[in-house]
Amino acid sequence: MSAERDAEVVSANEMGGGLHQLMVRAFSIASEAGELARPIHLLAALAIGDGPIASSLVLVNHDRPLARETDPLPGRGGGSSYLARQADEAAREFASARGDLAGPEHLLVALIDQGDPEVVAALSNSDLGMSALRVAALRLLGSPVDLPPVAMPPLIPAGTMDRPPYSWLISKMRRGPGCKLARITCRYAGFTALDGSGHCRISKNEPR
User: Fold this and answer.
1) What is the DSSP string of 24-84?
2) pTM (predicted TM-score)
3) DSSP element (H, E) containing 191
4) How far apart are CA 175 and CA 153, in angstroms?
5) Can you say whether the dihedral through the CA atoms of 66, 68, 73, 78 is positive or negative?
6) Long-range contacts of 151-154 (CB under 8 A, 24+ apart)
7) C-beta of residue 111 within 8 angstroms of C-beta of residue 87
8) Distances in whole angstroms, Cα of residue 104 to Cα of each of 14, 49, 51, 131, 191
9) For domain 3-141, is the CATH number 1.10.1780.10?
């Protein structure tokens, strides 16, 4: 899907809330690197924004800069990856279930609960832990701090958008289930945990 279409979808769904500007900023950050926006770019957009969530992420951005400052909403950006799309949809559904307009707090909770490896690494290498950041976001929303993880929308079928096909994943799964690289590759491709043979387990509900 084109960057223009991504921006139109975001605009149509989020014009009344803070998530619209965050997503367009994330598209712009990714575009400067010649990439589709991934969850790490959404985290970067949160870190260089305004408000209490951005303030909470200052140390994260200082320890390992996620992105440099950009001009305010410079164009439509580079478009969305399938994992960024999932995080965006999860944040919107989380907000909708509460009767809220989606904003930074909803997106941060969705990103943490999604567990993308790049986001986990960025947050784990800072003085702030993911649990503390999640609690802070939930408190800002007035939600219980022990709220269960937000539901992630189903992934798109393998081989569509930028999600790798099964054949690509199987070619990478040759190092055994204990290999960190194999686990990360499996998680990036959107599959479940590795089985004993070093291959990813495929959910019965997995779209093909």
Assistant:
1) HHHHHHHHHTTS-B-HHHHHHHHHTSSSHHHHHTHHHHHHS-------SS-SS-S-B-HHH
2) 0.72
3) none
4) 30
5) negative
6) 151/90, 151/93, 151/94, 152/86, 152/90, 152/113, 152/114, 153/86, 153/89, 153/90, 153/93, 154/205, 154/207
7) yes
8) 12, 9, 9, 16, 27
9) yes
Does 146 score more than 90 pLDDT?
Answer: yes
Nearest CA-CA partner of 23 in 55, 5, 46: 46
Dig out the tokens for 125 from the structure.
């290498």
User: What percentage of the chain carries pLDDT values higher than 70?
Assistant: 61
Structure tokens at 139: 């408190």
Contact in structure between 92 and 102 (CB atoms under 8 Å): yes
Spell out the domain ranges in the chain.
3-141, 155-208
Its sign, for the CA torsion 102, 108, 114, 119, is positive
* Helix, strand and coil in the chain, % to nearest 5: 55, 0, 45
Contacts of 42 (CB under 8 A, 6+ apart): 22, 23, 26, 84, 87, 88, 107, 111
